[in-house]
Amino acid sequence: MRISEIKVENFRLLKNSSIQLEEDLSLILGKNNCGKTSLLLILDKFLNGSPFSFDDFNSSFRDELKSYFESDSYPNSIGEPFPFIGISLKLFIKYDDNDDLSNIGDKVIMDLDPENKVIVLGFEYKLLESEFANLKDDYNAMNSQRELESNQTGDILSFIKQNFRNYFTTSKKSILYDTETGKENDSVYTDLLKEKINIGNIVNFKWINARRNVSNKDTERSLSTQSAKIYKKMEDEDVNRTVIDKFKNALTETDKKLEDIYGEMFNEIIEDVRKFGGTTQDQSSIRITSTLQHKELLEDNTTVVYGSSNSGIELPESYNGLGYMNLISMIFEIKIILNEFQNSKDSYPADINLLFIEEPEVHTHPQMQKIFIKNIKSLLGEGIPVRSGQNRKLQTIISTHSAHIVAESDFEDIKYFRKEDNEVKSKSLKDLEKIYCENKNNYKFLKQYLTLHRSDLFFADKVIFIEGDTERILLPAMMKKIDIEDELNEFLKDENTSLPLLSQNISIIEVGAYSHVFEEFIDFIGVKSLIITDIDSFETVFDKDKEGNKKLKSDGTEKTKELACRVSDGDGSSNYSLKYFLGKDIELESLAKLTLIERTLIKNSDENEWKVNEEGHVLLQYQSEEKNKEDQLYHARSFEDSFFHINKEFIKKHTFNEEEEFTGSLYFPSLTQKKMKDFATDKIDSYEMANGVGKKPAFAMEILLNSKMNEINMCCIKTRQERTLRQEYSNWEIPKYIKEGLQWLKED
């Protein structure tokens, strides 16, 4: 028996959310404030009875609530059912023929069809129709009184905030699941509160908070306190009776010895008490006795220590780092919870035992995070011991911000939370396999690449897909240049400062010319994405043998092949990604003329194609026509071609010194020296110079090493404020297609 799905309505960020759970472990990923903690809290409030607060109401639900009370009409017309007004949680439970159904019974199972093995437990914190009328009447009465006293009226939401507990009611139901529609039927249910069904026997929920009570202060011993909790549970179990009796007998013997010592220690003060009349002849004399309590002894008088078995040196837990203490504390806490799930020796564990571990990575370094997630499945997989000998399974949810934990996790366990338009959407990554059904190799590659190499993509607000090493090395510098230029312009115009690119949560992913492999994933997670690629122009030529004769096909026609060429000489583009996103039949001439808006795309789910949309979240950027400082208009084929075209002066200055001596090998050893000389003396163009790049990563590093920084003194015309700005990478320019793309990405 397990929970297969959780549905939440109107709770905090979870306006209308559905989360699929795995049988053993579900790993919830997402950025800050995307609903992970909201899921934990609604489970705690409904399953453990924690109280609701007004802040638990979803913001748009509050607006709906306000509109209901500001309207003169009722929420429902005559003859129509009263609408649901409140917070709801639904747990979809799947069971099979091997499960013990004694806790479920015919009151919880709504359908006797043997093929229907789904139970829906519904929990609601809602406003009933009668209480809606009462709340409205009370609010109107309060308003009338205030109007008489101060000629002012109160806000309905403020009134609800102060008084909602008087009107909202909790209900617990078992709802019919319709196998034909695959949905729950809310109109057919059993009231579990009226039937006095104990939900705790069906689902037991416990959680470990991200704000764990770990500290390395000398005065605090959180691990020792946890060891006392483990003891308290062991004391109730018959299997531990022998060792517990030994412990208690040792305490009794120690009590006797301590009483003799106390008599000697406190003899003088007891005598003083007697002299001052603290005891009378009718009273027996006082004495100090030892009353060691086994529970308190462990909690207050034990210390968890750590150390090396070789050195023999042991240190108390407070000397340990917070990371290790957090890990040890979690293991202790898990052990305590497993014992609590087990219940007392006279009762069985619940049918479903659900554990939520919030952000296990707190205080821990990457290697420790990897070790944790590698071992957690085996620790939790042991399940909950039952007297019958067959353990009950434990279902676990782990929420995390850690890319290192993701890298060591099973791809199919991942649930991705993303906030869209003030609502949280949950997606199971295993659903991607269905989406990639026609390209299973692409799915296999994506799965390996994301978990092993770039799991940080799951936590990014924006993504840049690039061709290779050159762009990867130079992009941070280019982003810095744009940030500085924007800061300069904003200061001079006295405008609000925009959020710098380098301060935004942007992942840079190196994909070569295979960005199309990621297109389903880009659409799936909906993250704003900039694809920087090359136009890769080619010309079609006859294929010839060594003697220069044209090769023939089997049917006698002449063979042709595609050769890389200047864009001006090209017949088409060999970049598959461009054709994939923009249409396989698009011509090179059309590619060259597309505007930025015409390269901004969104996926049309009905047609399963990428369509132009100004509000799209994907932008394709490749080389376009651009003028350099010599006013030469040119369309480059590659990044290197484009860089050389607009930075000819930069290359020239590092080719010859003022005495016209060649210095190119000193500054740019990665470039072919002859081509460098010819380029500096205008004998070859940037296209040929691009073919003279030896090692591209080395060339990118040399650009950075030869960069200069300028200090700019500025004065704002409006405010007359002055300041000095350090302009890094000031002696070279960013190719237009990259600059445009980064500026688009920088915007919200």
Automatic annotation (TrEMBL):
Residues 1-406 form the Endonuclease GajA/Old nuclease/RecF-like AAA domain. Keywords: Endonuclease, Hydrolase, Nuclease. CDD domains: TOPRIM_OLD (cd01026). GO terms for molecular function: endonuclease activity. Residues 458-536 form the OLD protein-like TOPRIM domain. Transmembrane segments: none annotated. This is ATP-dependent endonuclease of OLD family. It comes from Sporosarcina limicola.
